[in-house]
Structures are given as C-alpha cells and as structure tokens.
C-alpha cells in the first residue's frame, strides 16, 4: 500500500489531501521525527526519519499530523482479509506489505496481472487508499516490482523481462542492500542490480561473506523461499521494547524507572507468548546519539521482569559511560518454550518461580483493570517517565525477511 | 467537500443477526425514515473522510450513503 500511514491520514482528513503531509511523532515527548509522508511531501525531499524541523526546512507548507496506530492496524487486517479471498498463502512484511502465493492453474502471467488489478481495485474502493503490486515468480522480484511503479500500479516481472526491467535499477533497491553494502559495492564498481547479478559470486563472497552469495542469487532471481500460510505464526526470535525518554536520563532512579517499564513489558509479552529467555540485551543511546548494545546470559531461562531487570541493570552499569541517556532498549533473546524447564531445588530458582507466579497474577489484574492498575512503587517517583505503556503502545513489531 | 455528519440511527436486527438501519436522526433533531437499503458493502468515503460498512439507502426518494465506522454511523453531509 502506497505511503501507508500518510494515505490513511489523508483519507480521514480530505482537507489535507492536496497538500504535502507528514505523519510525525510527538515532538514534546522527543519523538519528533517523520514517520511517513505522502507523494507531495516526497517531491520536496522529505524523508522518513527526518526530524520535524528538517522537514519544515525542506518544505515550508508541510502539514504535520500525529499517527493513529489503531487505524493502521485496522486497515492492515482488512487488507489481509481482501488478500485472503484469493489465497491462504499470505505473508505479511510489516503492516503495509504482503507476499501472496497465487501459484495455480492457468496462464500465470495473465492471471497474475488480472488478480493484482482486481486486488488494487478492491483496496481502492473498500479502503480508500492505493496499492502497488509486483507480480513475479519469486518473492524478491515481486517486492522489487511492487516498488517499481507508484502509486496504484501493477508491474509484472517475468523470467524473460527481468533483465530489462530490474537490472538497470540501483543495487540499493534490492532487499538487504543497505547503506554499508551499497558503499562497499560502489567502491568495486558495482552500482546496479545487473552489475551485481553479473559479478563473480566468489568475488562477492570475498567482499560480503555469505550475504554476498545471497545477494547474487537474489539479483539473478534465484530466490526459492516460500510464502507462509496466513495463520502461520512467524517464529519469534526475540522480544524487545525501546523508548526515547521525554527528558535525558541522568540519575540512577531515572534509569531504574525506565528499565523497569521496559522489562515489565518484555516479560509480559514473553509470558503471553509462552516463552522464556536466556539472554538479555540492553541498548543505550546517550544525548550525543552515540549508541551501544550489550548482551548478557541468564543462569536459568526466565520470563519475569525482576530477573530481566537485574540483568539489564547490571549490563547498564557495566557499560554505561556516565553520559546522560536519551533512549534505552531491552531485548530478550535465546528464547525457549515456557514448558521445557529444568526443575531446581536451589532457593534462587524457587524465588524466581514465585516471582513468575506473582507477575502472572499481575498480568491478570492488568488485563482486567488496565496496565496502570498495579504499579511498582518506584514508578510513582517520576510519573513523567513511567507514564508510557510500551506493551499496548508498541503494537507494531517489524518482522525480518530471513527467519 | 462533504462534511462528516455523525447521526443517530435506529436499526432492527433480524433472526439471522443481520442489522438493518430503519431511520436516522440528523444533528438538528429531524428524523428521516430509510425507505429501503439498496446495497451493503465495505467502502471508503472519500468525500467525508472515513471508512466502514456502507449502506446505500433510499431516503425521501434519493439515494444516500450511510456509513457504519467502528460502531458509529455517519453520512456525507
């Protein structure tokens, strides 16, 4: 779907439809960056991730609107319902993108284009926003095709035409070619997808490692990954939350409050997914925007906030440089199923079990009476910092392409 | 550009659980009977800015769209 957030905002507010629009985060909470923009704003060079002041500098008459994540989620699930009328193989790639497997009887190219056009029409009528669709014989080319023409277009990429259509595109258009890879390739004279496809795979392997071979295969259309089924839950590899604090965090109490909020959300999400973690990662970004990530292992798989917090707090202390902190993140990784747990007679393990039972009871209270119904004492020390609710505020979790 | 006018609606639920709007009450209190529902489908309202289940209704001999959006009814005013 084209300019997803911005399109939905423009649908709901016809007055701004013909103006350059940017959906921006809350500047007062220091989340003031461009989350999405419409075509008109794009023409002025406004980019996702630009701070609001920069967007205003690029385009003086830009209209900024706050995001409505509930709407974006609602539209995403309605779009999936539309796709589900054609196939049960629908794999989401973020909120606004999907792969669909339409392999079946009939002439693939013609039928693919017909279905794509029908889907675009339905999305336009029922949801009031436009979509671009790429039809191809593998996921990588389908994605490239969907980015090829915007807005509201179907691009068919076949085994016969991919060289003419895709190979002249810059290598950075390919999935997984980020700024660092683009730079490395450009230094060796590889600028387009075609040049990448015709490069010697051994050379790419030397330059980029295993990733080089994968990219070479992608550029040649040799991606054979399948499209997941609609009800297939992606295997969760890690669960994390992060926040940019409304003010720089300086005291130990500031850190404590913010880390507790994040750990409680991570732990509750672990319990909801019936998982435990054995690894904890903390991300610290200081006021100069210098950031680090540090990991530590737990003695025993856990899904309680207290244990995760202790590890996160210890990691923070071990690696923090003493500078005021702008944002913090906590991630639980090395996940295992909640049921497979080695029993233990040691008192610390039993303490952890009790803690888990306590927090499970809290989950139930919070489910019935809201997230702020039961709180830690430390949260009351600074309501400004503890006000956020990452568990229900952050409902959009990006999914990686390679599981 | 049309205005998004939220209205009060009286509806009937039949035995199958289908909902049929019978009348709507405008902001100023006037009530209009819905003579007939001609079509029901999911649609966006580009005019008023919204999206929901669209009931194409005949009211006073004219066709009007009535939208049910997240539990609230609106018309393109």
Commentary on this structure:
The complex is a heterodimer of chains A (403) and B (77). Among the domains of chain A are: 4-67, MutS, DNA mismatch repair protein, domain I (3-Layer(aba) Sandwich); 238-393, 2-Layer Sandwich (Dna Ligase, domain 1). In chain A, the strands form four sheets. In chain A, strands 8-11-9-10 form a four-stranded antiparallel sheet, with helices on one face. A three-stranded mixed sheet of chain A has the order 2-1-3. In chain A, helix 10 (201-208) crosses helix 11 (210-219) and helix 12 (252-272) packs across helix 13 (305-319). In chain A, a hairpin with a 4-residue loop joins strand 9 and strand 10. Chain A has 403 residues and is α+β, with helices and mostly antiparallel strands. Helices cover 42% and strands 19% of the residues of chain A. Chain A contains 16 helices and eleven strands. Chain B is mainly β and 77 residues long. Helices cover 0% and strands 68% of the residues of chain B. Chain B contains no helices and eight strands. In chain B, the strands form two sheets. Chain B has a five-stranded antiparallel sheet, with no helix packed on it. In chain B, a hairpin with a 5-residue loop joins strand 2 and strand 3 (19-25). Chain B is globular, with a radius of gyration of 12 Å. The A-B interface holds A 11-15, 74-75, 78, 125-129 and B 1-2, 41-51, 70.
């Amino acid at each position: 779907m084209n300019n997803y957030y911005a399109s939905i905002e423009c649908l709901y507010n016809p007055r701004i439809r013909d103006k350059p629009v940017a959906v921006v985060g809350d500047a007062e909470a220091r989340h003031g960056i461009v989350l999405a923009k419409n075509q008109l704003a794009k023409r002025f060079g406004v980019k996702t991730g630009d701070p609001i002041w920069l967007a205003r500098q690029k385009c003086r008459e830009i209209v900024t609107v706050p995001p409505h994540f509930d709407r974006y989620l609602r539209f995403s699930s309605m779009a999936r319902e539309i796709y589900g009328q054609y196939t049960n193989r629908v794999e989401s790639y973020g909120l606004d993108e999907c792969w669909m497997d339409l392999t079946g009887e009939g002439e693939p190219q013609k039928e693919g284009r017909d279905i794509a056009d029908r889907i675009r029409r339905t999305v336009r009528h029922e949801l009031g926003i436009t979509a671009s669709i790429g039809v191809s014989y593998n996921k990588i080319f389908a994605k490239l095709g969907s980015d090829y023409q915007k807005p509201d277009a179907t691009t068919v990429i076949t085994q016969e035409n991919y060289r003419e259509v895709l190979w002249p595109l810059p290598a950075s258009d390919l999935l997984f070619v980020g700024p660092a890879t683009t730079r490395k390739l450009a230094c060796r004279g590889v600028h387009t997808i075609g040049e990448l496809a015709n490069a010697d795979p051994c050379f790419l392997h030397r330059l980029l490692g295993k990733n080089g071979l994968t990219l070479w295969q992608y550029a040649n259309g040799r991606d054979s990954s399948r499209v997941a089924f609609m009800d297939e839950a992606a295997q969760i590899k890690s669960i994390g939350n992060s926040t940019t604090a409304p003010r720089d965090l300086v005291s130990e109490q500031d850190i404590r409050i913010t880390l507790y909020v994040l750990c409680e959300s991570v732990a509750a999400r672990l319990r909801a997914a019936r998982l435990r973690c054995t690894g904890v990662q903390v991300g610290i970004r200081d006021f100069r925007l210098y950031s680090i990530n540090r990991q530590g292992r737990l003695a025993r798989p856990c899904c309680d906030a207290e244990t995760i917090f202790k590890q996160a707090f210890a990691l923070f202390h071990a690696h923090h440089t003493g500078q005021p902190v702008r944002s913090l993140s906590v991630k639980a990784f090395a996940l295992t199923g909640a049921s497979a747990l080695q029993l233990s007679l040691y008192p610390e393990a039993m303490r952890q079990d009790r803690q888990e039972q306590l927090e499970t009871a809290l989950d139930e209270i919070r489910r019935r009476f809201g997230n702020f119904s039961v709180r830690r004492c430390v949260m009351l020390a600074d309501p400004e910092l503890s006000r956020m609710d990452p568990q229900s505020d952050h409902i959009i979790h990006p999914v990686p392409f390679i599981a | 550009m049309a205005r998004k006018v939220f209205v009060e609606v009286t509806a009937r639920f039949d035995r199958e659980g289908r909902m049929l709007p019978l009348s709507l009450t405008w902001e100023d209190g006037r009530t209009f009977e819905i003579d007939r529902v001609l079509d029901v489908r999911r649609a966006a309202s580009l005019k008023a800015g919204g999206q929901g289940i669209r009931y194409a209704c005949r009211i006073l001999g004219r066709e009007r769209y009535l939208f049910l959006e997240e539990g609230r009814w609106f018309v393109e005013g």
